[in-house]
Amino acid sequence: MILPPLNALRFFDTAARRGSFSVAAAELHVTPGAVSQQIHLLEDRLGVPLFDRTARGVMLTEAGRRYASELRTIFESLERATEEVIAPTRQTLVIAVTPRFASKWLFPKLPEFQQANPHIEVELRPSLSPVDFARDQVDVAFRHGSGHWEGVEAHFLLSEELIPVCSHSLCQGPQAIRTAEDLRHHRLLHITPAMGEWGDWLAAAGATHPDSAGGIKLESLRVALDLAAAGLGVALGRLPFVSDELESGQLVAPLDLRIPSKNSYYLIYPSEWKNRPKVRTFTQWILKHTVSPSAETTAQEFQ
What we know:
By secondary structure, the chain is of the alpha/beta class. It has helices at about 5-20, 20-30, 30-45, 60-85, 100-105, 110-115, 135, 195-205, 220-230, 245-250, 275-290, 295-300, and strands spanning about 50-55, 55-60, 90-95, 120-125, 140-145, 150-165, 190, 215-220, 235-240, 260-270. The two termini are about 40 Å apart. The relative contact order is 0.13. The chain is built from 12 helices and 10 strands.
């Protein structure tokens, strides 16, 4: 039997994974019409419909689901075999990471990784935006959240503690911050991806008067800390990532109470990329060099 064209199989695999011709087209950098044409050609070659077309979109047929599952296994094996062949040559590992996590946690670790793995060149993509691995051509990402993301492997790295931080100026005068109730005199600086953390902290402090929703909403922790250092409000600092500012005196912690954050930092990548050599090498290395006992356990299980 003559096998179907590889290009048609690739288009079908992408459309099956994405569940949409238009999304597959964006990933493949072609038009939706080109995807549809290739899949029609494949269906004609096989003599079996692979998708049901409806007004609401496309859906795999039973035959399409079986075929997609088998093809995904074959493509994964092909990717692994290809990477293993080129492994001795220089490769590039593209890492998406939030800027603050990169500067405070990742940067100091990378020289040792590159020394241990000279054939892997690291390219960093600092960004606060959600990562689309296929579209952005990213291999792994460091992200902050609950650890529950669909379709990805998520390895716990470390957790944080939340503590109010501000400038020295807010700890002086008649409205100085000495108790949690004193926060009612000052702006609370919120990070929109983590709304509700001020409410958690105030509840733990037993404070009733400050409005946990009031204040200024910001996209970036870095901006919140800069505003706090300028005396324009009180931010929730994240330990250990605010330690440098506290030690230098750029910020102060007027109240001792710290609470655990509901979110943590994770290393993530698509589940189907788990056995890619460069992804596996980096994951094993970074988990072994993470202080957290939980991460060390994960690293052992990952081998």
